[in-house]
Amino acid sequence: MMNEKVLLILVDGMRPDSLEAVNHPFTRHLIETGAYTGQARTVMPSVTLPCHMSLFHSVAPDRHGVLTNTYTPQVRPINGLCEQLRQGKKTCGFFYNWGELKDLAKPDSLAVSFFASGHIHTYQKANQMVTDAAIRYICENQPDFAFLYLGYTDEAGHGFGWMTEPYLQSVRESWDCIERVARAISEDTTILVTADHGGHDRSHGTDMPEDMTIPLFIKGRTVPAKLELDPVSILDIAPTIARLIGVEAAEEWEGKALV
Length: 259
Known about the structure:
Oligomer: single chain
Number of domains: 1
Shape: globular
């Protein structure tokens, strides 16, 4: 069983084709040195909180019951990723700038939770704040799992439209954050980079390919270089992280481990 330390970075609303348009050098570096797909699928509705719940609980929205950006407690509760890691005596840290994500993990499952409001600070500034906090905590405490959420791209998509220049600039700046944290922490940490959904015009939430298609990068010492991942669902991310860290997946999880 593996015993990796894992950092999951999620860029809200990041379409795979935006990566080609931006052509950030660190994106190319991750593709060359790890596993990648630009054709992973999210869940319907392709809305932020339902997608995150599915990522962390490895079940579709009709199973966890969150269908909008308003959290509702599960009728038939199942453990999410952080609860499984806590049962395995692993440490977890959350760093995020959209407040609705507070219910993704039960409080007792987190060693630290850092929130900087994108609505108050602006998401552009809050991206930098949560990145700084993640770097400090990971370097000082070496948690088994850390989650870094960057919300600036989704705000730019809603404000200006997906694939517009302001949106692409938000993707570019998000990748600056990704590169900064990746180069600051231990090279032995396995890094996953993904999105919750895409977007079209100034919206998302439909079953259009522009909304449903997300990228996934995995880079780590146990991950083969230039590995093409296919097929991939957002439900596969929690089982993959659990296997990398060395804990059992919850029995109810529907996804599969990718590495």
